[in-house]
Amino acid sequence: MTSERTYHHGDLRHALLTAALDVIGTDGPDALSLRDLARRAGVSHAAPAHHFKDRTGLLTAIAAEGYALFADALTDAPDLRERGVAYVRFATGHPAHFQVMFRPELHRADDPDLRAAKARATEALRAGVSELPDADRGDDTRLAGIAAWSLAHGFATLLLSGNLDGPVDGREPGEVFRALAGHLFTGPTNPGSS
After folding, report:
1. I want to staple 91 with a disulfide (CB 3.0 to 4.6 A). Which of 86, 98, 123, 127 is the partner?
2. What global pTM score does this model have?
3. Residue 98: how many CB atoms within 10 A of its CB?
4. Domain 9-52: which CATH number of 2.60.40, 1.20.1440, 3.30.450, 1.10.10
């Protein structure tokens, strides 16, 4: 018999997403189970399936939410370097989302919410690259975009995995990334450009 509290739970979907993000943040996405989330939320073991169908559905919802937050963060940045800073700050501020977003085997790529949020984030990154002066972007805008993405994503991933604890040494990661990007994208004859 299902407990009364199952029917009186405030926003079960949100509670399940929050619990899932806690599990992922602590133990990684592979530790996630709908039964455990139901227990944490104080609902029947079948309740999560009502909102997400299955574990993949839950991870898809997390990825979609992450990409939507990510797109907002990137869109607010004024230029490509600051989009990189926003990228790193997003990763450090939302590490559980970040872990799920970039593991396509965990979610349904054809989900409309995920596709829309991912497209917004991609467009924000592309806009930053297309705004670069031709001399900085080169002839191949797509490769310039991959280079920028690789730098931001690589730095964020190394940071989250603890590989940059010594080099970053307590400094704010966005500021470190800004300096790093300055070393790579500002040549010695053009020190003030961005």
Report:
1. 98
2. 0.85
3. 22
4. 1.10.10
